[in-house]
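Entry 12.
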Amino acid sequence: MADKYQAEAEESDGLAESAPHYHGHRERLRGRFREAGPDSVSDYELLELLLFRAIPQRDVKPLAKELIQKFGSFAEVIAAPRARLKEIKGVGDSVVDELKIVQAAASRLAKGQVQKRPVLSSWSSVLDYCRMAMAYADKEQFRLLFLDKRNQLIADEVQQIGTVDHTPVYPREVVKRALELSATAIILVHNHPSGDPTPSRADIQMTQSIIEVAKPLGIAVHDHIIVGKEGHASFKGLKLI
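Predicted 3D structure (tokens):
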């Protein structure tokens, strides 16, 4: 079955779709997705399915392939900043809106797996949400997950947004916000736009500073997670806290 779909994709790649043909291609692609599921389509084909809505009267396969080539993967296209997306010829507001709607939907689905559940017993969902929210951002962000005494999520807030490689973090502001929310624990999360989630010396020092301020006030720091395109790093898993 997979060979059949691959052959169809290759045959379609070899033909320049004129206006009379691309409608048929759209229906075949939709049909394959409907009958065989999402694993039957490649990244660029999944992107085509989105672009059909934004660009109803043009063959969108070349644009889908160009976007994947430019950004690297379906996830990276969806998460790319609006300004960078619009640098691509043929990408206007309607295309960007469709992509950002999908990004928002994916983020809310992932967040829904975290809310109203003990965070420490659904750790894989927490990691999925953090990667979805931050891994492909082009600037460094510092996010806080505030937990109650049952380790359920009270709030999820981006406290700071910095440059491509630096975000200023103020430990007393972190703890102050935790007290305002009556949180008894926090999880620190930030991203490395370089893609490599390995903690830096500054990351380690900042984490220790927050722990030192939070501990006397009865606020635990459960973990500090760094996410990037190449994966994630957990301070607890690395025994850094």
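Annotation: Residues 93-112 form the longest helix (20 residues). The domain at 119-234 is CATH 3.40.140.10 (Cytidine Deaminase; domain 2).
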